[in-house]
Amino acid sequence: MVADTSWNAFANSKSISSNLDRSAGSAGSFVPTPPRIKDKRAVVNVQNSDDGYCFVWSILAPLHSARDHRYRIQNYAKYASELNLDGSIFPLPIKDIPRFERQNPNIAIHCMVVDSKDNSFSILYLSPHVHKPQHTITLLILDNERDPQKHHYVYAKHLSRLIDHRSKNTKRSHVCLNCLQVFSAEHVLEKHERCCLVHSPQQIAFPEPDKC
Q1: N or C of the chain: less Cβ packing under 10 Å?
Q2: Please, are residues 114 and 120 in contact by the beta-carbon 8 Å criterion?
């Protein structure tokens, strides 16, 4: 637990529930970033220990980007009151993300999970308002390999860098949030999305680079 007055004010706030829900479909306990993801420098993994609020820190990380030590809670605790967390239970279950969006209409969530066994990404939640709010935030859920009951939200800062590991193209790429296809030009992505977004989110599996 961080010894910080702003953190204490947040943790004791009546606007949130102190009941840490360990039910399936939620995430909260800290999980270190796996080396193969860490090496891409694509995510911000706030070290929340076991406070259960990794969702909150992962939302605040892009809204208030820190210059240094982005993994520290102290960078974000003072901004927690900006979020409407009334009635929320933490760790926040995936099914409660739509409620969070309704209470925070300027934020849209895109949430994925990585399967280390087959090197695939699955989309767990994609906001129907992903192209409307001021802030669209991609979250990645990490699983604890030693404890399957523990999961952890992190902020996916560079989505293309996270999933486009097969390409040798160093230029900026653009990712469809619905199917995770990567495009070299934004106008090509926009044309693709007009058709893709009418379908349900998909799973994408990547072969290892040496098998391509």
Answers
A1: C
A2: yes
